[in-house]
Amino acid sequence: xxxxxxxxxxxxxxxxxxxxxxxxxxxxxxxxxxxxxxxxxxxxxxxxxxxxxxxxxxxxxxxxxxxxxxxxxxxxxxxxxxxxxxxxxxxxxxxxxxxxxxxxxxxxxxxxxxxxxxxxxxxxxxxxxxxxxxxxxxxxxxxxxxxxxxxxxxxxxxxxxxxxxxxxxxxxxxxxxxxxxxxxxxxxxxxxxxxxxxxxxxxxxxxxxxxxxxxxxxxxxxxxxxxxxxxxxxxxxxxxxxxxxxxxxxxxxxxxxxxxxxxxxxxxxxxxxxxxxxxxxxxxxxxxxxxxxxxxxxxxxxxxxxxxxxxxxxxxxxxxxxxxxxxxxxxxxxxxxxxxxxxxxxxxxxxxxxxxxxxxxxxxxxxxxxxxxxxxxxxxxxxxxxxxxxxxxxxxxxxxxxxxxxxxxxxxxxxxxxxxxxxxxxxxxxxxxxxxxx
Length: 438
Known about the structure:
Layout: E1 4-9, H1 13-24, H2 26-33, E2 37-43, E3 60-62, H3 65-69, E4 76-79, H4 87-96, E5 100-103, H5 106-123, E6 127-128, H6 139-146, E7 152-158, H7 161-173, H8 177-187, H9 195-198, H10 201-215, E8 225-226, H11 234-242, E9 245-256, E10 259-270, E11 282-289, E12 293-300, H12 304-320, E13 352-362, H13 367-377, E14 382-387, E15 396-403, E16 406-407, H14 408-419, E17 424-433
Parallel strand pairs: 1-2, 1-4, 2-3, 4-5, 5-6, 8-10, 10-17
Antiparallel strand pairs: 7-9, 7-11, 9-10, 11-12, 13-15, 13-16, 13-17, 14-15
Helix pairs in contact: 1-12, 2-12, 4-5, 5-10, 7-8, 13-14
Binding site for NADPH: 106
Binding site for NADP(+): 9-16
GO molecular function, one term: homoserine dehydrogenase activity
């Protein structure tokens, strides 16, 4: 059987890794796919030939990406240029031309996936996007196929390695956020503009995809609540450890009575949880199904070869099904297209969770009683409290509290009232808490 011809858009980190993996493991890949896979045409404006193995196996390399999606010999287009545009236009044109697509572009899928998948269904082609979430961890396949028998209850994931590296260094070496961020940039873990990573946007793209796969709802990136880690201080990391918790930047999606929760924010989790011990740039996704219980997926969430592993796995899947009736393929979003449910997204103020609160209060009688009264008026009960000794000459003391679960709207009201007290200095630091128990 003739090899399948692939067109590759981008020869950057992941594109170069894809070329390397296809060349290095060509025999094994052919055995799995049932036929060879060849890159007949690639497009890149610039690339480093010294770090890519197998460039000599590519039929031709140019700089015109649209030439590839319009090339009649190309059967599968692999989009690895990233971003929203021209990636969207290229993918839609490839689909219109009847070509299958594989992409690692989480931003594209999270924001334009509904349109792309509808176009693919109309043309009877597949769109593979395993590499769009958690790099080399096969979490998409796990949700679409391995856990298909389950009613998924919730997902919680460390799905951005940059943020996890920063929080790990802050905990292990008692360093400040800004200092660790600078190191992450120097090491290449963070971009010169790290906004997408540290503000949770990258994780929100990935969580949007996971939520759709888990609950059978359309992709709704615009509904995802995001909060970054820039305000997490070394004090909070240390206090959390004293209380038996670790702070992780989690993406959490849960099916609740009021709708689908979709949120990314710093989170205290018990240090005994496996996911609390995922450190450095590694990723992990915890999925709770009603039949299987909690399952954890761990591995490299980025990098040339780990992400290329997922890209090539999608290529193998597409090649295996080239002759399959389109109606018998695994649905893009796990559920049959006409079975996607219009379950509402739950606004953040309606989400229920527990909280870590840190504030600076005047060291005098009655202050704690007033704060406790405000919390009680909002139906908030305190699980634990720590009052630190004041520094010499200071009139205010750090006060740390853990609360039981409460609706966020009530906590917002309580925090506003506490901050208005003359006896409280500055803003209240609030970090949400989850037990992530089975």
